[in-house]
Amino acid sequence: MSHFKTRRQPGGGAKFLIIVIIILLLGGSVTIWILQQPRARAADAVREFYKYEQQGNYTQSWNLFHSEMKNRFSDEQYSKLRAQFLTQDTFSKSFTFKVSKMKAKKNWKTPGSGLVLKKVYVTTVTQTFNNDFGKFNIVQEVIIVKEDGKYRILWNYN
């Protein structure tokens, strides 16, 4: 038999419940943040690529390509063709772009070698040009995959 009597403090259960809820909310927020990081980093790579394109810095944008794309175009070839397309063919000196929401896909097959990539992110990029003929958009699917620890750009060129 115990000689000590314990008293339950009023409201103690409610405080405990509030603390548990706060811990669960924080844990859930951290988990969501961690899971969103790869998607955000993939989107950052796409934005970086198209910012280089806007600046006419095609060597830097080419550096962000996945090895499949680098095998398809040399740096010099890509820079020449891309500059011609984005300025001469569109009769435009600049463009704006919008990146849509990233979607994860599994087991995506590359168009060149047929290599199967376990996890990729897919987005749509809309480039808006304005010239003497008016405004027009080019909409392109962009694939982003992690290669050698960095997110790289692929286009489905089939």
Can you tell me about this structure?
The protein has 4 helices and 5 strands; from the N terminus they run ααααβββββ. By secondary structure, it is of the alpha+beta class. It has one domain (17-155): Roll (Nuclear Transport Factor 2, Chain: A). β4 (134-147) and β5 form a beta hairpin. The model has no long low-confidence stretch (mean pLDDT 86).
Average of the residue pLDDT scores: 86
Helix-strand topology string? HHHHEEEEE
**Number of beta-strand segments:** 5
Strand residue content: 25-35%
The CATH homology group name: NTF2-like, domain 1
Rg over CA atoms, rounded to whole Å, is 25 Å
- Give the class-level CATH name: Alpha Beta
Distance between the first and last residues' Cα: 83 Å
Query: How many strands, which pairing sense, and closed or not: the largest β-sheet?
Result: 5 strands, antiparallel
Instruction: Assign a percent range to the helix content.
Output: 40-55%
By secondary-structure content and strand pairing, the structural class works out as alpha+beta
